[in-house]
């Protein structure tokens, strides 16, 4: 193992990056920190639709990090196909010790071209847990990729259970928590969101998704608005809006003008959180939510769905857990917090304290150990240790 430790390991990281979301937050925070690793040399292969987005990507990473941006169309399904084709044309996988592929969708195809002793798959919740696994072709590709991989890193125990039911060797699956940029959240320069949006209500409830689908529970939150709006509160919603919920959001904007705000994609999420009093994650399907961890790190009273992804693991008794899909319970939770300001303050402090367990610096050290353990397995035929709920980060 001493000889292995002296060698700098080249790791190619492949992931879709456009148009944002939790995966983007994960990649920019984890791999930026690994740029200073004495053990790993990181090469990022990310997609972008235009030069403007190229600039956004480059701003996320230190200048010394190896970054390859691959141009793709904006169309959702076309961009994935073009990304894979260009990867296969431009990247020689033989030049790397390991290839980390984010998302089952990409891994399902690329696993055919990557030596199994080099393939590491990182899943992010929906790619394992949502309805796409009901598609026979997708399930076959997923199972083949999982079985070819030398290791699989996943953010939820639900994903582990699902993969085991598919017949994947549980010894190659690692539970790997997401992280939060605690210093970035706390030290972000705050501007006046109330002034920007002309908010006059006493309290602000926010949710900070990068992407809004039905599986994110956006429609459930909207159904709770009649009850929420009985209180002195405004609701702020960020992120890209998809067609399955867009009409409902536009309707809410008209109905609750001056109190309900959809402000689109924002680069200043810590600022949105700093200006808010409560954070809500109403998702129906989730991995380990970075957005929830950010809400916790900002010291806000958090509401999240019970039994969805790792919400209970992240938040636990440091916030309020509600039944997935229950607009009634969301309304009741918001009412409880507004009517009990001391509880709101206490839960915010408790959530902030718990968020320290998930700092990205600690997660980056875990990533190094993860790769080291894979090397042990690869070179000596041993099983590597697995990060579990009982492990102290």
- Under CATH, the topology of the largest domain can be stated as Rossmann fold
Strand order of the largest sheet: 3-2-1-4-5-6-7
Q: Summarize the main sheet.
A: 7 strands, parallel
**Share in helix:** 40-55%
- Kindly report the name of the CATH homologous superfamily of the largest domain: Glycogen Phosphorylase B
- SS content category: alpha/beta
Uncertain parts: 1-5, 382-393
CATH class descriptor of the largest domain: Alpha Beta
Mean pLDDT across the residues is: 90
CATH architecture assignment name of the largest domain: 3-Layer(aba) Sandwich
- Silhouette: globular
Q: Report strand %.
A: 15-25%
Radius of gyration using CA atoms only? 21 Å
Number of helices: 19
Taking the alpha carbons of the first and last residues, their distance comes to: 23 Å
Number of strands: 15
Estimate nothing, just give the exact number of structural domains: 2
Can you describe what's shown?
The chain folds into 2 domains: 2-179 and 359-380, Rossmann fold; 182-357, Rossmann fold (3-Layer(aba) Sandwich). It has 19 helices and 15 strands. It is an alpha/beta fold and 393 residues long. The protein has helices spanning 2-5, 22-33, 51-60, 76-90, 104-110, 126-129, 136-148, 157-165, 182-187, 193-197, 218-223, 225-228, 246-255, 269-274, 290-297, 311-314, 327-339, 341-355, 360-380, and strands spanning 9-15, 40-48, 66-71, 98-102, 119-122, 151-154, 173-175, 203-207, 211-212, 233-237, 240-241, 260-262, 278-281, 301-305, 320-322. The model is unreliable at 1-5 and 382-393 (pLDDT under 50). Strands 3-2-1-4-5-6-7 form a 7-stranded parallel β-sheet. The protein starts with a helix and ends in a 13-residue tail after the last helix. Helix 2 (22-33) crosses helix 19 and helix 5 crosses helix 7. It is globular and about 60 Å long. The relative contact order is 0.12.
């Amino acid at each position: 193992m001493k000889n292995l430790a002296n060698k700098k390991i080249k790791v190619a990281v492949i992931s879709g990056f456009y148009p944002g979301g939790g995966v983007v937050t994960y990649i920019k925070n984890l791999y930026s920190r690994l740029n200073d690793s004495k053990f790993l040399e990181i090469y990022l292969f990310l997609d972008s639709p235009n030069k403007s987005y190229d600039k956004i990507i480059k701003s996320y990473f230190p200048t010394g990090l190896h970054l390859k941006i691959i141009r793709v169309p904006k169309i959702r399904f076309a961009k994935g196909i073009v990304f894979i084709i260009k990867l296969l044309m431009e990247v020689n996988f033989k030049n790397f010790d390991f290839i980390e592929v984010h998302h089952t969708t990409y891994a399902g195809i690329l696993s055919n071209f990557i030596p199994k002793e080099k393939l590491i798959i990182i899943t992010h919740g929906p790619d394992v847990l949502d309805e796409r696994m009901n598609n026979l072709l997708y399930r076959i590709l997923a199972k083949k990729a999982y079985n070819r991989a030398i290791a699989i890193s996943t953010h939820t125990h639900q994903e582990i259970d699902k993969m085991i039911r598919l017949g994947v060797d549980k010894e190659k699956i690692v539970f790997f928590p997401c992280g939060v940029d605690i210093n970035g959240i706390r030290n972000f320069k705050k501007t006046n969101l109330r002034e920007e949006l002309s908010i006059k209500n006493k309290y602000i409830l926010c949710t900070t998704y990068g992407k809004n689908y039905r599986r994110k529970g956006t429609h459930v939150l909207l159904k709770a608005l009649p009850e929420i709006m009985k209180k002195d509160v405004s609701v702020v919603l960020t992120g890209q809006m998809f067609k399955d919920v867009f009409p409902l959001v536009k309707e809410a904007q008209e109905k609750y003008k001056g109190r309900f705000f959809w402000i689109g994609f924002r680069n200043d999420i810590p600022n949105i959180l700093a200006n808010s009093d409560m954070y809500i994650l109403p998702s129906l399907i989730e991995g380990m939510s970075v957005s929830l961890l950010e809400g916790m790190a900002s010291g806000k009273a958090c509401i999240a769905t019970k039994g969805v992804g790792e919400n209970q693991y992240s938040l636990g008794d440091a916030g309020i857990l509600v039944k997935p899909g229950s607009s009634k319970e969301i309304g009741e939770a918001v009412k409880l917090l507004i009517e009990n300001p001391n509880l709101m303050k206490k839960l915010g402090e408790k959530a902030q304290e718990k968020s320290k367990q998930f700092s990205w610096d600690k997660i980056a050290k875990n990533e190094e150990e993860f790769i080291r353990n894979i090397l042990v397995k690869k070179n000596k035929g041993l099983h590597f240790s697995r990060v579990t709920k009982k492990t102290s980060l």
